[in-house]
Amino acid sequence: MPMFEGQAILPAIKTMKQFDQLMDSSYRYGVFLDTHVAQLKSIYRMAQGQGKQMFLHADLVHGLKNDEYATEYLCQEIKPHGIISTRGNVILKAKQKGVIAIQRVFMLDTIALEKSYALLEKTQPDYIEVLPGVVPHMIHEIVQRAGVPVFAGGLIRTVEEVEQALKAGATAVTTSNPHLFAHYKKT
Q: Is this entry keyworded Transcription regulation (predicted)?
């Protein structure tokens, strides 16, 4: 996992307490979930001041519509390390603006998976975030078929599940589980 300096875990931050813990940790990369548009500039300024490279889940920014105009604003004003979204137009705009684009896909059933493959062909993201991340054989299939690095996320609760996702080919695991943050913290 040289892409993220050996980080197996990308901490997914949902609260200011988790944000403070990330700022005091050795993790360099993380993900902002469930943020408010009014706090974006300040939390990104703090993160950058601590040398943190933060991805932003654009669909979960309260007070901001998740469309290409909002994405343009995020890329120009907030300057996240990358944008995560389920929406193809958001991914395409992030790529156009030179920001790492992570297409989030849900493995609900075969029809949803095939629609996701069609979307991935259209958007050609830099990374794919696969949810739920507890299905190693599907992670392997997506890595092979899409030819794009994969993050595994969602419902991963144990060290064993992290290890299975990584063994299946995931580049990293996104998780909001603080026990997993602590287990994988770089020394």
A: yes
Residue 2 has pLDDT above 50, yes or no: no
Torsions phi, psi of 164, nearest 5?
-65, -40
**CA-closest candidate to residue 148, choices 113, 106, 103:** 103
Q: How many residues appear in the chain? A: 187
Per-domain residue ranges of the chain? 7-184
Cα–Cα dist 47/54, whole Å: 7
**In the CATH scheme, what is the code of domain 7-184?**
3.20.20.70
| CA separation for the pair 28, 36 (Å, rounded) | 22
Q: Is the entire prediction scored with pTM above 0.70?
A: yes
- The SS3 call for residue 128 is strand
The dihedrals phi and psi of 126, each to the nearest 5 degrees, come to -75, -35
The amino acid at residue 31 is: V
The string of pLDDT tens digits covering residues 123-159 is 999 999 999 999 999 999 999 999 999 999 999 999 9
pLDDT interval class at 103 (50, 70, 90): very high
Asked if the bond preceding 125 is cis, omega within 30° of 0, the reply is no
